[in-house]
């Protein structure tokens, strides 16, 4: 069924879009969340139009008053979104037109193409700030667990085989580093978003005497010195979706990090590891097996990280075949970006909540880290200190490990003559290599897990996250 010619571009049409086309074409169901940014953009644009004399100050004020009223209605949940008006931009413009005659001048020297690019850049700046704050919250929750368990040692793993002892805090500080890099990526994305598209028009700017720098300044698209940042090529501006891809990549990378942390916690909560207990509030039970307590929050983070990667892939594929400049395909850029934001935000909150309620089972950790074999490398270092070349020392320790296995005893239970039969450099103090406290204190360099280094890192993170 054809509708009345469309109000926004109806001049050259004799029929409006079919009902099916309206449903197919609408984006307001998901881009309505751009409303605050769309309204900020329209207020800045109309302020600029008044500044250069394209509209009067009275018209500007009327437009601003109408937009403020619309935003208040939207925030109160009273605004009626209409899918037949397609997107957030036309919904707001139409509502404004019904209230304020001057609204008919608002779209002067503007297209939805530079409008949506502006809305999204404003949105990206806000979204990056929000996610950075959530990252800091998650980091604080992790830091608190580290602070509560400063003396707990666990085996560190490579190949999921016990490797060397580390303080649990050292492992947790690795998470802080990963998340800090994620925050850094969001800061870069926010900086890349910080260029004002308005004035690019549909593709080739405008013949009207606008002031792009004025608009950019009004919207906060400025550099560190407060100088306006405006995009430098109108065609690139309306076609460019790099920031979308970069944002989704930052979310996907954060998702990979969160997923790896989640995987650690899933393992650590298993009976096999038993290092931690996750809070009931972030676990679920089984509908059949009464004894089960499952780490669903962490499994869902692991699962959602796949979705974040999918969103990135959607955006890359969406952009790759498009001729310059704007093509309607690009409307499909928003669902993956919004989903990446929403899911990343949720995952960060859930991670913070799970860590906040996590209990460390110190006795299980101590038992796991008590195997002297974890300090086999320290024994090789002992031989190195006796002047043995490392390759030879490695071999001499390997042979001792084998001997202990053959005798069915722990590594530190072998006698001095046992080890001296392998290499004469072993002295009576060889067995001191298995003193965990001394072994940890020796790992004294930057980035290593000695207690002294850990105190340094604590101080650093406490300052960073204060
Ligand atoms: N809703 C549209 C989008 O998100 C806005 C831009 C529409 N431009 C156009 N020429 N149809 O892409």
What does it look like?
The mean pLDDT is 96. Strand 1 and strand 2 form a beta hairpin. Strands 1-2 form a two-stranded antiparallel sheet. It has 466 residues and is mainly alpha-helical. The longest helix is centred in the N-terminal third of the chain and has 37 residues. It is built from 18 helices and 4 strands. It folds into 3 domains: 90 residues, Orthogonal Bundle (Fumarase C, Chain B, domain 1); 237 residues, Up-down Bundle (Fumarase C, Chain A, domain 2), CATH 1.20.200; 89 residues, Fumarase/aspartase (C-terminal domain) (Ribonucleotide Reductase Protein R1, domain 1). Bound molecules: arginine (ARG). InterPro entries: Arg_succ_lyase_C, Argininosuccinate_lyase, Fumarase/histidase_N, Fumarate_lyase_CS, Fumarate_lyase_fam, Fumarate_lyase_N, L-Aspartase-like. It is found in: Cytoplasm. Its EC number is 4.3.2.1.
Summarize the structure.
Belongs to the lyase 1 family. Argininosuccinate lyase subfamily. One of its GO terms (molecular function) is argininosuccinate lyase activity. This protein is mainly alpha-helical and 466 residues long.
């Amino acid at each position: 069924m054809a509708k009345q010619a469309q109000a926004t571009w109806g001049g050259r049409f004799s029929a409006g879009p079919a009902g099916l086309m309206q449903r197919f074409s609408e984006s307001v169901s998901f881009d309505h969340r751009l409303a605050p940014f769309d309204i900020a953009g329209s207020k800045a644009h109309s302020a600029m139009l008044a500044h250069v004399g394209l509209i009067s100050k009275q018209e500007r004020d009327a437009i601003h008053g109408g937009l403020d009223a619309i935003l208040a209605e939207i925030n109160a949940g009273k605004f009626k979104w209409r899918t037949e008006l397609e997107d957030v931009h036309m919904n707001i413009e139409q509502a404004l037109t019904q209230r304020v005659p001057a609204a008919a001048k608002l779209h002067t020297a503007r297209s939805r193409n530079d409008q949506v690019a502006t809305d999204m850049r404003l949105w990206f700046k806000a979204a990056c700030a929000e996610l950075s704050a959530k990252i800091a919250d998650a980091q604080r929750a992790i830091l608190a667990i580290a602070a509560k368990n400063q003396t707990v040692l666990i085996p560190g793993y490579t190949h999921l085989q016990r490797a060397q002892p580390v303080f649990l805090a050292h492992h947790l500080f690795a998470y802080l580093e990963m998340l800090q890099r994620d925050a850094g990526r969001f800061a870069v994305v926010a900086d890349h978003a910080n260029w004002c598209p308005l004035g690019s028009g549909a593709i080739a700017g405008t013949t009207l005497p606008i002031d792009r720098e004025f608009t950019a300044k009004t919207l906060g698209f400025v550099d560190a010195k407060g100088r306006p940042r405006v995009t430098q090529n109108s065609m690139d501006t309306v076609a460019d979706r790099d920031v979308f891809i970069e944002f989704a990549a930052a979310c996907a990378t954060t998702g990979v990090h969160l997923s790896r942390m989640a995987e650690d916690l899933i393992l650590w909560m298993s009976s096999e590891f038993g290092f931690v207990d996750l809070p009931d509030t972030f676990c679920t039970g089984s509908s059949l097996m009464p004894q089960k307590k499952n780490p669903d929050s962490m499994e869902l983070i692991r699962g959602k990280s796949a979705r974040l990667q999918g969103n990135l892939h959607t955006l890359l594929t969406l952009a790759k075949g498009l001729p310059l400049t704007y093509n309607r395909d690009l409307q499909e850029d928003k669902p993956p970006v919004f989903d990446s934001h929403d899911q990343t935000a949720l995952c960060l909150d859930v991670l913070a909540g799970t860590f906040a309620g996590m209990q460390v089972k110190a006795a299980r950790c101590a038992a796991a880290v008590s195997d002297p074999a974890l300090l086999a490398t320290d024994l090789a270092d002992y031989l190195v200190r006796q002047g043995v070349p490392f390759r030879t020392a490695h071999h001499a320790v390997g042979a001792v490990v084998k001997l202990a296995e053959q005798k069915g005893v722990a590594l530190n239970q072998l006698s001095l003559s046992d080890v001296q039969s392998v290499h004469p450099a072993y002295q009576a103090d060889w067995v001191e290599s298995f003193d965990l406290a001394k072994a940890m204190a020796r790992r004294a360099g930057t980035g290593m897990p000695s207690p002294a280094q850990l105190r340094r890192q604590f101080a650093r993170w406490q300052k960073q996250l204060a």
